[in-house]
């Protein structure tokens, strides 16, 4: 915790130097970020942005806890969203709402499992398979909303709107679902044999193998859980306003990459990941207010995020060259 606090202060200090170099007042800029993120006019937007960021951060933290990096969150997110829309358009009523969420989870879990099987059976590194499998998933979703699922009354690549009874008209249901998932992850991580196996594998894969942990089976389970949660996040976002799938709308806000930054910053600790994700969501949301009030580009918030990760990595020794025992 002390390391994170020192790193945060160092990143803010460097950000202040960058702000001063542009001719802006650092105190005013930081005040604008805080007010824009947590003020009466911005808190709702921050909360709405934090829900998918926290969800994706938790999804990516699940395998990261075992030292496995899932870079395919965007593809799993998009597949979950388009699956939820496809089911929601054809299954009416409350049953359609539940079926849409389940479809999103299953789509993300099954797709992520493909990457896990490629590593465990074919020896293809997880980093490669998860990242590359995102592109056909996003292209498939783009095809669907341009042709078979396209809204005929619109020139945009988007689906029809969901029926009124298959929608999240308020933020509360999505917030509750993501909060419940975070709680479940924290309990499983701290109180169950599965969580212990995951942590041991993260501490040392070779030691975990000697302890009898089935790494291939663990890889499939963790990737399925990670992809399933990413698909659930996609479904939750798709069921909310504007109640349709719009090509590119889930990629532009960078839920996945900001979530990955949060998971890395917290070393995949459940509570730490939650706090880091909310912090990054607030930083991103407040950046828009800073740009409006001080004319400082909001891209500075992305610079702060990157600097924060680099400083933390340096402070914890992640960037130090490890010695090879001879």
UniProtKB/TrEMBL annotation:
GO cellular component, one term: plasma membrane
This protein's record includes keyword Membrane: yes
One Pfam family named in its UniProt record: BPD_transp_2
Record localization: Cell membrane
Molecular function terms, GO-annotated: transmembrane transporter activity
Residues passing through the membrane, by range: 47-66, 78-111, 123-145, 166-188, 220-243, 255-282, 302-319
InterPro entries membership: ABC_transp_permease
Tree of life domain: Bacteria
UniProt keyword annotations, A-Z: Cell membrane, Membrane, Signal, Sugar transport, Transmembrane, Transmembrane helix, Transport
Stretch forming the signal peptide: 1-20
Its membrane topology: Multi-pass membrane protein
CDD domains in UniProt: TM_PBP1_transp_TpRbsC_like
Protein name: Simple sugar transport system permease protein
Organism whose genome encodes this protein: Actinophytocola algeriensis
């Amino acid at each position: 915790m002390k390391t994170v606090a020192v790193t945060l202060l160092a990143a803010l200090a460097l950000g202040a130097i960058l702000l001063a170099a542009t001719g802006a007042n650092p105190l005013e800029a930081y005040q604008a970020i805080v007010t824009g993120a947590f003020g009466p006019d911005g808190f709702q937007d921050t909360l709405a942005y934090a829900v998918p960021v926290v969800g994706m951060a938790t999804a990516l933290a699940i395998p990261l806890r075992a030292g496995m990096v899932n870079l395919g969150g965007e593809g799993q997110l998009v597949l979950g969203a388009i699956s939820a829309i496809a089911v929601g358009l054809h299954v009416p009523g409350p049953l359609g709402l539940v079926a849409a969420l389940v479809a999103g989870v299953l789509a993300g879990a099954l797709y992520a499992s493909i990457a896990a099987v490629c590593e465990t059976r074919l020896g293809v590194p997880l980093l490669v398979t998860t990242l590359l499998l995102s592109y056909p998933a996003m292209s498939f979703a783009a095809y669907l909303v341009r042709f078979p699922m396209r809204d005929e009354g619109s020139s945009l690549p988007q689906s029809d709107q969901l029926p009124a009874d298959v929608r999240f008209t308020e933020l509360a249901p999505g917030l509750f679902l993501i909060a419940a998932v975070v709680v479940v992850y924290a309990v499983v991580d701290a109180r169950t044999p599965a969580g212990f196996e995951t942590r041991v594998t993260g501490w040392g894969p070779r030691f975990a193998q000697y302890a009898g942990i089935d790494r291939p089976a663990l890889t499939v389970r963790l990737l399925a859980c990670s992809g399933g949660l990413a698909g659930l996040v996609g479904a939750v976002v798709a069921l909310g306003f504007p109640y349709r799938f719009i090509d590119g709308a889930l990629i532009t806000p960078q839920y996945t990459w900001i979530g990955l930054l949060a998971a890395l910053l917290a070393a995949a600790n459940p509570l730490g990941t939650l706090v880091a994700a909310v912090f990054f969501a607030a930083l991103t949301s407040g950046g828009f207010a800073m740009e409006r009030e001080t004319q400082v580009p909001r891209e500075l918030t992305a610079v702060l995020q990157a600097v924060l990760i680099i400083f933390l990595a340096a402070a914890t020794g992640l960037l130090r060259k490890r010695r090879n025992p001879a």
